[in-house]
């Protein structure tokens, strides 16, 4: 079993839909990251969370430390949101352990 | 502001040839530096990380090595590439005081032929 599990692996939705991507982890962490990887491969850090909830524009990330679970939400989704979303947890020595990613496709 | 530079963006190399990928960070000092690899259809895997000059930790046994000759320079090398070394290589940095998240370079797509 992977230390970081994401679901779903693939998600296709229509423009405007509310999107939820889930991440569960099995190790103790100091922080959880949500990353966005575009088709060209470049990765952008969206959020770093250690508790509670963060919001940036149409993106919302939440984390429940007790349940070892985090969610990434996208409101009013748009085709430009199409990308791979990666959950990563930071354990010791600041090393990140990555989930396998969720491939999101938003159709116009 | 802090920036990270990684080059080259793409590279096609024959089996058995050497490799050198370079990553530099600007606008910060004493960063933690990382090399990650993403094989086709797979997730990111940590290859090496460094918390200071000359300090390199390897996560997986492999055909690659890393060096940190200067505070903000991280180099990934191989003496003889294998086909299995093909993939997408990402350099990243984080602050040593853990006050910031990670910043990734733009990546190098390596194809070994």
Description:
The complex is a heterodimer of chains A (108) and B (113). Chain A is mainly β. Helices cover 0% and strands 59% of the residues of chain A. Chain A contains no helices and 11 strands. Chain A has strands at 4-7, 10-14, 19-25, 31-37, 43-49, 52-56, 59-64, 69-74, 83-90, 96-98, 102-107. In chain A, strands 2, 4, 5, 9, 10 and 11 form a 6-stranded mixed sheet that branches. In chain A, strands 1-3-8-7-6 form a 5-stranded antiparallel sheet, with no helix packed on it. In chain A, a hairpin with a 2-residue loop joins strand 6 (52-56) and strand 7. In chain B, the strands form 2 sheets. In chain B, strands 2, 4, 5, 6, 9, 10 and 11 form a 7-stranded mixed sheet that branches. In chain B, strands 1-3-8-7 form a 4-stranded antiparallel sheet, with no helix packed on it. The N and C termini of chain B lie far apart (38 Å). The model of chain B has no long low-confidence stretch (mean pLDDT 90). Chain A binds chain B through residues 30-31, 33, 35, 41-45, 47-48, 86, 88, 93-101, and chain B through 32, 34, 38, 42-46, 49, 51, 57, 59, 88, 90, 94, 98, 100-104, 106-107, 109.
Keywords:
heterodimer; A: 108 residues; mainly beta; B: mainly beta; seven-stranded mixed beta sheet; four-stranded antiparallel beta sheet; 11 strands
Topology of this structure?
The complex is a heterodimer of chains A (108) and B (113).
Chain A: E1 4-7, E2 10-14, E3 19-25, E4 31-37, E5 43-49, E6 52-56, E7 59-64, E8 69-74, E9 83-90, E10 96-98, E11 102-107
Parallel strand pairs in A: 2-11
Antiparallel strand pairs in A: 1-3, 3-8, 4-5, 4-9, 6-7, 7-8, 9-10, 9-11
Chain B: E1 3-7, E2 10-13, E3 19-26, E4 32-38, E5 44-52, E6 55-58, E7 65-70, E8 73-78, E9 87-94, E10 103-104, E11 108-112
Parallel strand pairs in B: 2-11
Antiparallel strand pairs in B: 1-3, 3-8, 4-5, 4-9, 5-6, 7-8, 9-10, 9-11
